[in-house]
Amino acid sequence: MLLKSILSVTLILFSVIDIPGSLPVLLAMKKEGVKIQPFIATLTAGVIMLIFFYGGASVLGVMGIDMSSFALAGSLIIFFIGLEMVLGIRFFRDTHEEGGGTGSIVPVAFPLVAGAGTLTTLISLKTEFDSISIFVAVMINLVIVYITLRSTGWLEKVLSAQTISTLRKVFGILLLAIAIQMFRSNVMG
Predict the structure, then answer these.
(1) How many domains does the chain have?
(2) Short-list 179, 50, 163, CA closest to 109
(3) Shortest CA distance to 45 belongs to which of 13, 2, 3?
(4) What angle is formed at CA 19 by the lines to CA 60 and CA 178, rounded to 5 degrees?
(5) Cα 163 to chain center, whole Å?
C-alpha cells in the first residue's frame, strides 16, 4: 500500500511540476546565456516545497482555513493547470514568461519547479496520502528535476518539440482526472 501511495503521489507531483513541459523555457534560457546551476535550483525548490508542506497547514490554521477547503481550492488549480497543458491556453502568468528574473533560484526553483500549483498540490495531497509517501515522492521528483536540469543539452538534441508537446498533453489529462477525483472526494468527504 505504501508503494502504491508513493507511486501515485510521485506521478501527481511529476505532472504538476511538469519538468518536461518546462523544457522549452529551460532551453530558451540556455540559448540566452542564462546559467542554471542544477544543484542550487533543485535544493532551493526542495527547501521551498518541504517548508510549505510541513508549515503550510499551520499558516492555513492561523487564517481559519481547514485542509478540506484548501484541498478543494487546490483541486481547482490543478484542474486549470491540466487545462493549460491540454489546450495550450494560459490561465496563470508566471514571471519567467515575462522576461523576469534569471538564474537558478528565480525563475527555475521558484516558480518553475516549486510554483503555486506544486505548493497547493502538496497541501492538498495531505488530505488523501500519508506524509511519508509525500516526502518520498517529493525526493523522487527532485531527483528527476536535477537530472533534467543537468541534461538540458542532451535533451535538446534527443526530444523533438512534438514529443515535448505530446508529453504535456498526456500529463495534462492525468491532472484533470486527479483534480476531479480530489474535488469529488473532498466534497463528499
Answers:
(1) 1
(2) 50
(3) 13
(4) 55
(5) 19
Long-range contacts of 104-107, Cβ-Cβ distance < 8 Å, separation of 24 or more: 104/35, 104/36, 104/37, 104/38, 104/40, 104/41, 104/44, 105/40, 105/41, 105/44, 107/25
Q: What is this structure's pTM?
A: 0.72
Q: How many CB atoms lie within 10 A of CB 135?
A: 16
Residue 11 belongs to domain spanning:
2-188
Grid look-up 543539452 returns 153
* Mean pLDDT estimate for the chain: 83
User: Locate cell 469529488: which residue?
Assistant: 184
Q: What is the DSSP letter of 29?
A: H
Q: Identify which of 54, 45, 56 has the alpha carbon closest to the alpha carbon of residue 22.
A: 45
- Average pLDDT score over residue span 155-174: 80
**C-beta of residue 174 within 8 angstroms of C-beta of residue 15:** yes
Q: Quick: pLDDT tens for 21-31.
A: 777 778 767 77
CA atoms within 13 A on the CB side of 181: 11
Interval 38-56: pLDDT, tens: 999 999 999 999 998 998 8
Q: What is the pLDDT of residues 71-85, one digit of tens each?
A: 787 778 778 877 887
Task: State the amino acid at position 4 in one-letter form.
Answer: K
DSSP, residue by residue, 55-69: HHHHHHHHTT--HHH
